[in-house]
Design brief:
Length: 589
């Protein structure tokens, strides 16, 4: 939640002219390859390397797609990059002026370290950046940052994007340095982050002591907790490595950032990198304020649905009752329980003493030994066996149960950041199809979407209507249990049941899940995607669910057999590549 470096909407001097890009008009004049030529090309092996990935690919329909991403007239193209366990989307909209370049909108660019290697063939961030450069000519008209998490930001660095030009930057109101409520939330979050860093250090100390004492079971638990807390902290810190040095240095960086107000974490550095290059200004957006026109497009409008400006809703993290997609009744991961509030000890460190040290404290050691005992003393030991409750009973001591609280605090903080996600719906022309990008929004964010309507001229436009016209859904938080609400069309709250509820939208509905299960299964508590959610999406869409790790053959195996015509129509709109999926969405059927 970094402070905005300059006022929203400010202008910069116009950049120098770039070499003319391939326009839609010029692209249309190229001759389509003959059927024989396509067969010959298909037999040739593809060359490895970035150049091959930027070259033309052949879609499932047989149409040639150039390195430059050019949407068809009357359609938008959504490119989902197979970046790993993380989000990176590139949208291409037809321009308002015929013959002009398409308008490119990019949403996030990040991944969890280690996850790209779990996709076949493995890819690198350089491959992704090279592809984006080829697709856009290095010019992103609108860059959207949904929230400050590693798997949404760590690709946006000088290393990969130094020669890119960014037009406007959109982020949530939580990034507005002039917003008192946002600043208060930011300070409170940073305080808790410092507390979590201290808890992580305490876990390391406990691990050393338990190992030295030969307590293998507790040492194993401490090691697992330390690893889990470190993993969750990495999401808040950012960067392309989850190594010990990166995480250990963050507490110093955070302390410096709070004094100098300079972004020093990797997430904040990535955010600042993009903001500093915003040639047409930065907008920190609030939900329901107004309908936004996506500048330069042929009638594309944007509706900001979240995050809510209500702390209670921001802290409302998990679905309840009928809102849930249920996990298996037995064997559910305990980490799904979120029972610890977002707070650390109410006492400052100078008023605290560890349990082990308390027994030998010069001023208070006798009291602790007498009433909480360490097995070596206790008042009236001769009569201890006759007492119903010994003074130094072991159950009086919490001992190492605090380790569970450290993990729960880390999970809760992670979920809180998810719930501050910027949620945007793109409408393809007034009354047209809708693309919904939910980032990692959780329960409170979802429930806030329909609290207000949008003013559309003299009329009111409801969020329920927008969701009913949604034909493409970016599934929340890798398909996790708490980022998609279950429900029906008649439910009183926004849910999957509200989405694609109209006839035309229902027939087109397609979903995108940014998940690599082969990587997630090795992370404690990362059940991504939840099978119940993925199954519901497959059923709702007729099998049209993109997932980062699945190629065309894998998707074919998941499709139903009863509607071959609908599946062919889907394939005709789709390009499968090692680096990305392209999906064409018409403005209206």
């Amino acid at each position: 939640m970094a402070k905005t470096p300059r006022a929203a909407g400010t202008k910069r001097k116009a950049p120098a002219k770039r070499p003319p890009a391939l326009s839609a008009k010029k692209a249309a004049t190229k001759k389509a390859p003959t059927k024989a030529a396509r067969k010959t090309a298909a037999k040739k092996p593809r060359k490895a390397g970035a150049k091959a990935k930027m070259a033309a690919v052949v879609s499932s329909s047989g149409a040639s797609t150039p390195g430059r991403l050019i949407p068809d007239p009357g359609s938008a193209t959504v490119r989902m990059y197979r970046i790993g366990h993380g989000d990176c989307f590139l949208l291409a909209f037809p321009p308002e002026t015929a013959g002009s370049d398409p308008i490119y909108v990019m949403i996030d660019c990040g991944y969890k370290p280690g996850s790209p290697g779990k996709i076949e063939p493995p890819r690198t961030m350089k491959d992704i950046a090279d592809s984006i450069r080829a697709a856009t000519g290095g010019h992103i008209h609108l860059m959207i940052i949904t929230h400050e998490h590693q798997d949404h930001l760590n690709g946006l660095t000088q290393t990969y994007f130094k020669d890119f030009k960014f037009g406007e930057v959109w982020c949530a109101w939580t990034e507005d340095g002039s917003d008192a409520f946002a600043n208060m939330l930011r300070e409170r979050f940073n305080d808790r982050l410092v507390g979590l860093m201290r808890a992580r250090r305490s876990l390391a100390t406990a691990l050393d002591r338990l190992s030295a004492a030969g307590d293998r079971d507790m040492a194993r638990a401490a090691r697992r907790m330390h690893s889990r807390v470190s993993e969750l902290l990495a999401l808040e810190i950012g960067g392309e490595d989850d190594d010990e040095a990166t995480i250990s240095s963050f507490e110093r960086e955070l302390s410096a950032a709070r004094k100098t107000e300079r972004p020093t974490s990797r997430n904040k550095t990535a955010l600042a990198f993009v903001k500093d290059r915003a040639e047409n200004g930065i907008r920190c957006l609030r939900p329901h304020e107004r309908i936004l026109k996506v500048s330069g497009t042929a009638g594309v409008r944007a509706f900001v649905l979240g995050p809510p400006r209500n702390e209670k809703q921001l802290l409302d993290l998990d679905p309840v009752g009928e809102e849930e997609f249920h996990i298996a009744p037995f064997g559910a991961d305990a980490s799904n329980a979120r029972t610890v509030p977002l707070q650390t000890s109410p006492f400052a460190a100078r008023h605290s003493v560890s349990l082990d040290d308390s027994f030998f404290d010069g001023r208070h050691g006798a009291f602790f030994r007498e009433h909480y005992g360490n097995g070596s003393s206790g008042r009236d030991r001769k009569n201890a066996e006759t007492r119903e409750v010994p003074d130094d009973a072991a159950w009086r001591r919490i001992e190492h149960d605090w380790m569970l609280s450290a993990e729960s605090l880390a999970i809760a903080m992670n979920d809180y950041t998810n719930n501050t996600s910027l949620v945007v719906a793109f409408e393809l022309g007034a009354g047209g199809n809708v693309l919904l990008f939910t980032a990692d929004a959780q329960r409170g964010n979802w429930l806030s979407w329909d609290r207000k309507s949008f003013k559309d001229g003299e009329k009111k436009l409801s969020v329920k209507d927008l969701l009913a016209r949604t034909v493409l859904l970016k599934v929340g938080h890798h398909g996790s249990h708490n980022a998609t609400l279950n429900g029906h069309r008649s439910s009183k709250y926004p849910s999957l049941g509200w989405i694609a509820a109209q006839g035309d939208a229902a027939r087109q509905f397609t979903a995108m899940i940014t998940a690599v299960p082969a990587w997630a299964k090795d992370q404690p508590g990362w059940n991504h995607p939840l099978k119940a959610i993925e199954d519901a999406l497959l059923d709702k869409s007729g099998g049209r669910v993109f997932r980062t790790d699945l190629d065309r053959k894998a998707m074919e195996r998941r499709r139903p057999d009863d509607d071959k015509k609908a599946w062919k129509s889907f394939l005709d709109r789709t390009v499968f590549d090692d680096l990305y999926f392209d999906y064409k969405v018409p403005f209206e059927e």
